[in-house]
Amino acid sequence: MKRKLGIGLSIIFFLLLFSYFFILIDLPSSFSLVEGTESIVRIRFPFDLYVSGIRNSVITNNGQRISGEHFRLIPGNLILRAETVGSSDLTFKLFGIIPIKSITVNVLPEIRVYPGGQAIGVLLKSRGVMVVGNSFVEGEDGRKYYPAQEAGIRVGDKILEINKMVVNDKVVLATEIQKNMKENKGINLLVENKDGERRYVRVIPVKNKQGVFMIGLYVVDGVAGVGTLTFINPENNEFGALGHEIIETNSQTRIDLREGKIIEAQISGIHSGQRGIPGEKLGTFFQSENIIGDIKINNQFGIFGKIKKFVRNPYFKTPIPVAANSEIVRGPAKIYTVVSGGKIEEFLVNIERVYHQSSPGEKGMIINITDPRLKELTGGIVQGMSGSPIVQNNKLVGAITHVFVNEPSKGYGVFAEWMVSQTLGNFQD
Questions:
Q1: Residue 51, class by beta-carbon neighbours within 10 Å (0-12 exposed, 13-18 middle, 19+ buried)?
Q2: How many angstroms separate the CA atoms of 380 and 386, rounded?
Q3: DSSP 308
Q4: What domains sit in the chain, N to C, each tagged with a CATH number?
Q5: What is the H or E stretch that residue 417 is in?
Q6: Has 429 been annotated as catalytic?
Q7: Catalytic option among 244, 251, 388, 402
Q8: Is 320:115 a contact under the CB 8 Å cutoff?
Q9: Which H/E stretch holds residue 348?
Q10: Which phi and psi (to 5°) does residue 322 adopt?
Q11: Is the whole-model pTM more than 0.90?
């Protein structure tokens, strides 16, 4: 009987141990704090737990300031107050011996930005000419030929040179093909694949019934679209927008940026979203007018660059802090976007979920549009709304990036911390 009781108590002990162990393990492996702010880590552990590796922050445990390299924790609240920019690696140990969990605390300087919300036209020019499709060429003899495909050129490749001449324009590429063939020079292309590997390819163009030499490719040299400005940093005149990368839709390849611009746009209409069919903003802009800035980066967190013309969101007279990821909570927030003309409007949303991200990632939170007027106008999140700033507790917390196709009132947001970190004085004028 005593043996069974002992086994039973041992099982209960280990169940308790493992339940608390997994609670601690569930904590993020890293999180950020803005200098001068606090974060609370709730410790509910019935056994001796120690923390070590304290730097660049003041840590208190149930009101007692922690000092030294090895500190025994009392079950309760562990309050971290960030005092010095830098990072600390905190290690939690059971009985001061067995490592259970390590957490990296990054202390960031406070950064203040102006939230955006402006509708923008986006113009990107690619480095090289992008291959977006293969085709046949009907020759003078009526037969079908596939010169580029037979030479090994695939969708997603970039053509960088033709006969040693750099080419970034699809019209120039077509012109050079005609010119070189008429001079009987043949065609040698420098091609780069999706992995960045380069090779020289010899292609034999085919003359069609109209007397035009063709190689059987569909190509583009840039893209244009409508999105939303997320923020402007007044300290370095840098901006961030969209919250996601710009890709060429046919090849599903990121545009390898050569140059780009953001331009003031007007929203002329909206196709409302519905279940299974994403909606979109209809925008107009003129390529040579009202240029806001030059794009320097196109990556997974959006487009970033230097401001040429300062534009303001009328809801913010002064810049507001950028929230660290750890400061974002589930609950009400606001977004800023344009639904008609060029007027920025404020709308209510709810942050339904915040993901713990120990390293930068695109999908940091789930947003639900709760504003009745915006749902009536757009059906929820629509294309062109990407980049709309999300503000909670008067801090920029993120930007809308993607819509749930089957539930258009909901979508993903990216953390503002990740977007702002892509700038911070990285660009030359």
A1: buried
A2: 12
A3: S
A4: 22-108 (2.60.40.1860), 113-123+222-420 (2.40.10.120), 136-215 (2.30.42.10)
A5: helix 416-420
A6: no
A7: 244
A8: yes
A9: strand 344-354
A10: -90, 125
A11: no
Residue 288 CA to chain centroid, in angstroms?
Answer: 27
Chain position carrying tokens 């969101």: 313
pLDDT tens, position by position, 94-147: 666 677 777 777 777 889 999 999 999 999 999 999 999 999 999 999 999 999
Place of tokens 């259970």: 100
Catalytic residue status for 371: yes
Cβ atoms < 10 Å from Cβ of 30:
18
Q: Distance between CA atoms of 318 and 219, rounded to whole angstroms?
A: 45
SS (H, E, C) 172-234: HHHHHHHHHHHCCCCEEEEEECCCCCEEEEEECCEEECCCCEECCEEEEEEEEEEEEEEEEEC
Is 244 tagged catalytic? Answer: yes
| Residues facing 334 on adjacent strands | 348, 391
Token output for 201: 């390819």
SS3 5: helix
Length of the chain: 429
Enumerate residues 6+ apart whose C-beta is below 8 A from 39: 31, 33, 79, 80, 326, 327
- Sort strands 389-392 and 331-338 into parallel, antiparallel or unpaired: antiparallel
Q: Which of 30, 32, 386, 388 is catalytic?
A: 386
Structure-block tokens of residue 8: 């039973």
3-state secondary structure of 421: coil
In order, the DSSP letters of 11-24 are HHHHHHHHHHHHHH
Q: How far, in Å, CA of 370 to CA of 211, rounded? A: 60
Instruction: List the structure tokens of 104.
Output: 């990296």
Residue ranges in the chain whose pLDDT is less than 70: 1-28, 40-83, 94-97, 358, 425-429
Please give the biggest Cα pair distance in the chain. Answer: 101
Q: Which of 88, 157, 371, 409 is catalytic?
A: 371
Using CB atoms within 10 Å of the CB of residue 15, give its burial: 0 to 12 exposed, 13 to 18 middle, 19+ buried: exposed
Give the pair of three-digit tokens for residue 12. Answer: 């209960």
Amino acid type, 210: Q
d(CA 335, CA 116): 10
- Is 125 exposed, middle or buried, given 0-12, 13-18 or 19+ CB atoms closer than 10 A? middle
Q: Which two tokens stand for residue 7?
A: 């086994």
Question: Which pLDDT value is given to residue 45?
Answer: 56
